């Protein structure tokens, strides 16, 4: 598949309000006149897909393909990409088993219920991992979003050739000539302006207008979510043109046949 035959490229990241998507039409690059990317937030991944044509290529910062038994280092892709990232490798965390991800799918209305669900997921994760390990708070925080995509890929197998897992720091590294970003996007949970500027400069070198990157993100999304989605859109373009590399190559498959790879 080439950019000429792919009309829409989309980069997606999870955000507080749901999903932030940077969309680019006409299968061109951001440099082409009259083809400025657009950005929007969607409450659900299904709503995002419903807004796209059937041939759109989507790169999303979310694990796709779940293990039955979680092993040391993750599903496989994680162990392959961490060495590329230097000080940024802590941004790649391992995903527990599918059973742990589905251990508690309730709508948590209190903090106590949320932590109780985290404990249940950790208990299941301990019994479905080798060596046994629980679930980090960071990982548990995105369980509902992982399940959202997983359920869609189970129900609609045709999406497996259109929706691809990527990772922002791996994307920035690959876009930077296989050199990891020097500065973090956040320090102690707060935006790091220098790290954001480093990433904006790289995205600008790949065709984004700085005026677009400097726009405030839509309501419900953070500034770093916006830049991550912008990087994902470039990876969608690399996938469409055949330039992207999957880790591993070729991609693996989970027990349901869903591809398992980080693309960049």
TrEMBL record:
Domain of life, source organism: Bacteria
Pfam families in the record: DUF429
Source organism per UniProt: Mesorhizobium kowhaii
Record protein name field: DUF429 domain-containing protein
């Amino acid at each position: 598949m080439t950019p000429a035959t792919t009309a829409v490229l989309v980069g997606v990241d999870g955000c507080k309000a749901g999903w932030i998507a940077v969309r680019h039409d006409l299968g061109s690059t951001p440099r082409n006149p009259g083809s400025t990317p657009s950005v929007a937030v969607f409450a659900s991944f299904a709503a995002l897909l419903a807004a796209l044509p059937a041939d759109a290529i989507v790169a999303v910062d979310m694990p796709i393909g779940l293990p039955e038994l979680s092993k040391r280092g993750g599903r496989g892709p994680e162990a392959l990409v961490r060495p590329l990232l230097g000080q940024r490798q802590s941004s790649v965390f391992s995903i527990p088993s599918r059973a742990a991800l589905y251990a508690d799918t309730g709508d948590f209305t209190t903090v106590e219920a949320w932590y109780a669900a985290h404990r249940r997921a950790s208990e299941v994760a301990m019994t479905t991992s080798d060596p046994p390990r629980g679930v980090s708070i960071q990982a548990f925080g995105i369980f509902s979003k992982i399940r959202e995509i997983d359920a869609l890929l189970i129900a609609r197998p045709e999406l497996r050739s259109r929706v691809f897992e990527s990772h922002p720091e791996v994307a920035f590294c690959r876009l930077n000539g296989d050199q990891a970003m020097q500065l973090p996007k956040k320090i102690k949970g707060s935006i790091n302006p220098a790290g954001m500027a480093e990433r904006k400069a790289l995205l600008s070198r790949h065709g984004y207008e700085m005026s677009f990157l400097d726009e405030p993100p839509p309501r419900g999304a953070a500034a770093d979510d916006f830049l991550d989605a912008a990087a994902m859109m470039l990876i969608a373009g690399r996938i469409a043109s055949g330039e992207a590399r999957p880790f591993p190559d070729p991609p693996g498959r989970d027990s349901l046949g869903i591809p398992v790879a980080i693309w960049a």
